[in-house]
Design goal:
The protein is mainly alpha-helical and 357 residues long. The chain contains 16 helices and five strands. The chain has two domains: 18-222, no CATH class; 232-352, no CATH class.
Length: 357
């Protein structure tokens, strides 16, 4: 049975570390069933997307001669291998890849030979024999990124396996995006429950969610979520800007995809928009700063307390509507200007002229 090698659903590490964001669902095909008809033409935007399959390279290692194999991998992944082995996997090799290193001898060899851990490799290979379709989806997203941010440097993509340690999509040193394919094996993959992945996370465990997870991670690297001294409205607008960013990077993705909702959950929010907003007003939550009372409304969860039949994260959905209303009132503002707008949240709401339907 699998054992968790790291704790917590969220970790933040920058430069010599990383910032991550767990995955999101995309219904149908990411670029075939979306809602946007006014996205800019990015067909002439030139980018070079570099992708590497660390998962496959690790699976091919000769467990009788790991030192030689790891030295070859170090040559192929000089910018990532030590971080992968020591931070993501937690082996503590400290760059010593000799067979006499206990971290290699016992730790890595166990990952590569134990039937349960080996089974993760086999399942990933079955689900992702290649990544051509996914690469194409990411490449299109990066073209939009380059369109809106001309000075942006497209990161390298490394596909990997972390043995269900909950590394979905994350940035490393702002130059690499890591994608843990083992966290996108579908909601029915039996071992997710064994390692404590909650049921409400199921929409984020599908391959279709990967592009959204990637661009969430990139956004959070550029715009870390701030909680200190913030009230619920502050946080809602922060999350709303993130969703507005996703609108522009993945303009053809379904709305429920970007939220990791089912279509039914999205429809509940749309049918109860006024109810949600009035609930926050009636409970005096918009300007509440007690995290224990408000964080559940801007993070994933099974539901939103006080709102029967609601999905979790309804504050994020409502913040998204407010930001879109603000953008509609300010059509000359660029995406970057709206995201970087430092206006006080109450004034932002006022100027948005937002009216719940």
């Amino acid at each position: 049975m699998f054992k968790r090698l790291s704790t917590g659903m969220m970790l933040n590490v920058n430069k010599r570390a990383l910032k991550w964001a767990m995955p999101i669902l995309i219904a149908c095909s990411l670029y075939s069933c979306g809602e946007s008809n006014d996205a800019p033409d990015v067909s002439d935007v030139k980018i070079i997307l570099s992708t590497r399959r660390l998962d496959q390279d690790m699976a091919k290692l000769d467990t009788n001669n790991l030192a030689a194999g790891l030295q070859q991998l170090q040559g192929k992944y000089p910018d990532f291998l030590s971080f992968y082995l020591d931070t993501l996997i937690g082996l503590g090799t400290n760059g010593n890849y000799s067979d006499t290193n206990i971290a290699i001898q016992n730790g890595l060899r166990s990952y590569l030979t134990h039937k349960d851990y080996r089974g993760v490799f086999d399942t990933v290979t079955k689900h992702y024999p290649d990544t051509k379709k996914l690469d194409a989806e990411l490449e299109k997203g990066f073209r939009y990124m380059k369109h809106y941010y001309p000075d942006y440097h497209v990161p390298k993509v490394v596909y990997l396996v972390s043995w269900l340690n909950n590394w979905g999509a994350f940035t490393y040193d702002s130059t690499i995006v890591g994608i843990g394919l083992d966290m996108f094996l579908g909601e029915n993959y039996p071992y997710y429950q064994a390692v404590g992945i909650p049921q409400y996370w199921s929409e984020q465990l599908k391959s279709e969610y990967i592009p959204v997870a990637v661009f969430k991670a990139i956004y959070r690297d550029k715009q870390p979520f701030a909680m200190e001294g913030k009230n619920l409205l502050d946080m809602m607008i922060q999350r709303g800007k993130e969703m507005y960013f996703l609108d522009h990077m993945l303009p053809e993705a379904e709305k429920h995809t970007k939220l990791a909702y089912t279509q039914k959950q999205l429809e509940w929010c749309e049918a109860n928009e006024a109810l949600i907003y009035n609930f926050f007003v009636a409970q005096n939550f918009l300007y509440e700063t007690n995290w224990q009372k408000i964080l559940r409304y801007v993070n994933e969860g099974p539901n939103s307390a006080g709102l029967p039949e609601s999905p979790g994260n309804v504050g994020t959905w409502l913040g998204w509507q407010i930001v879109k209303a603000y953008a509609a009132q300010n059509p000359k503002m660029t995406l970057e200007q709206i995201i970087n707008d430092k206006q006080e949240a109450q004034q932002f709401l006022l100027l948005s002229k937002y009216k719940p339907k």
